[in-house]
Amino acid sequence: MHTLAIDIGGTKIALGLVTDGKLIERAQIPTPRAQSAAQFAQVILTCAEQWLPKIDNIGVSTTGLVTKGGISAINPDTLAFPSPFPLAQALESLTNKPVAMLNDAQAAAWYEFVRLETPVKNMAFITVSTGVGGGIIIDGKLHQGGAGLAGHIGHISIDSQGPQCGCGQTGCVEVIASGTAIKKASDAEFTPPISNIDLFEQADSNPVAETIISHSAQAIATLCCNLKATLDLDVIVLGGGVGLAKGYLDRVRKAIQTRPSAFQIPVTEAIGNYDACLLGAAYQFKE
Ligand code: BMX
Ligand code: ZN
């Protein structure tokens, strides 16, 4: 089976040809500005043109809340779609292939759950990237909730005096810990501005860089402990560009170790690495 996998993030779209569960070829484009779903779908399909003749189906994982009507942004600062954005329908009518769509972190959660080295029943996947997303597995099943919102743990508020989040709440994990939040904090400190990659590289020798990264990791540790308290999970899997950056997982683990033992939880690295959401997109066609 050949699947066109599409992972739509706030910054980039990753595409891949997945054959029998393996990522055979990969491409990437910056996320285009969305005018209409048909135009957005066309940009993606043009990039995947060489694979289209052989694909059987299309699996999409996307940032945002996924409902039957389309994609809606919970935090429009992350990705401003006119909502609901009927992308699955547009892809289907342009290709005549079956399209399956899930929230990006929910898709990755299921992929990571099936691949856990030590099988468990209750798990969460957290991606720390442009935003902070999540997917929750309860009793061996992906929990999407009544409206598909389950797992939007980046919008758990952890500081009532904190900064305003694009979702309308105050002090969300996302507005404190995401790659976007890190960049904002870094831009306020460094002139000329540096990339998040450079910030991580400087962390060993520059206490300002270290403070910014630790602040994010502490918020993710709080999120992990809150999830442990709420759902008594067995493990949390961490992914995303920031989540997988050198030393980030260690910082989260160390911060968790300082919390009361009842709320401590093991955190592991995504086996799908930077492609967890992309592989999760294709994995929807697996039983
Ligand atoms: C936001 C939200 C989530 C998403 C998460 C990670 C939007 C558009 N997205 O919290 O649905 O899972 O970001 O998204 O509201 P990413 O773009 O960082 O991968
Ligand atoms: Zn929020």
Automatic annotation (TrEMBL):
<protein>
    <submittedName>
        <fullName>N-acetylmannosamine kinase</fullName>
        <ecNumber>2.7.1.60</ecNumber>
    </submittedName>
</protein>
<dbReference type="InterPro" id="IPR049874">
    <property type="entry name" value="ROK_cs"/>
</dbReference>
<keyword id="KW-0418">Kinase</keyword>
<dbReference type="InterPro" id="IPR043129">
    <property type="entry name" value="ATPase_NBD"/>
</dbReference>
<dbReference type="GO" id="GO:0009384">
    <property type="term" value="F:N-acylmannosamine kinase activity"/>
</dbReference>
<dbReference type="InterPro" id="IPR000600">
    <property type="entry name" value="ROK"/>
</dbReference>
<keyword id="KW-0808">Transferase</keyword>
<dbReference type="Pfam" id="PF00480">
    <property type="entry name" value="ROK"/>
</dbReference>
<keyword id="KW-0119">Carbohydrate metabolism</keyword>
<dbReference type="GO" id="GO:0019262">
    <property type="term" value="P:N-acetylneuraminate catabolic process"/>
</dbReference>
